[in-house]
């Protein structure tokens, strides 16, 4: 089931809303390439007070939980070296940090990155981190279930606003690896 665009008051092409996006996200949309045309990426203006998934679902309805995806930053450590990566899973699941992510990073230990690190390194706001516009070189792990959705509601880089993006486009982002079992119940 695609995200019903009419469930939101203000939905516009993301390329027409660059001034509302954080700089890394706006830059990625300006230079968009891939099989999904940039016109298919939409910006939804939302109140920052309802940015968290649970509150957004409460406000718009339970259907949203199945169509939303979260992007979290993880840190994998091995031999004193830390690798940051981003993981995208459907909102009703959680990231398998200690299994799938740790193995993919070849890390001895993996955990969620501290908020200051996630925000500082991504150039995005906490609660709005998105896989679009991540730093070059970061691994991006996308759960296969996210890649399969027609459209996912994801962060826009800031707490205000969301993006509606085809799952296929998320799977094609720079550095992306699609993984089965990244998101677990």
From TrEMBL:
Single GO molecular function: aminoacyl-tRNA deacylase activity
Domain YbaK/aminoacyl-tRNA synthetase-associated residue range list: 49-170
Stretches that traverse the bilayer: none
InterPro entries named in the record: YbaK/aa-tRNA-synt-asso_dom_sf, YbaK/aa-tRNA-synth-assoc-dom
Pfam family, one: tRNA_edit
Gene3D superfamilies reported for this sequence: YbaK/aminoacyl-tRNA synthetase-associated domain
Species this protein is from: Streptomyces lydicus
Identification of the protein by name: YbaK/aminoacyl-tRNA synthetase-associated domain-containing protein
Cited SUPFAM superfamilies: YbaK/ProRS associated domain
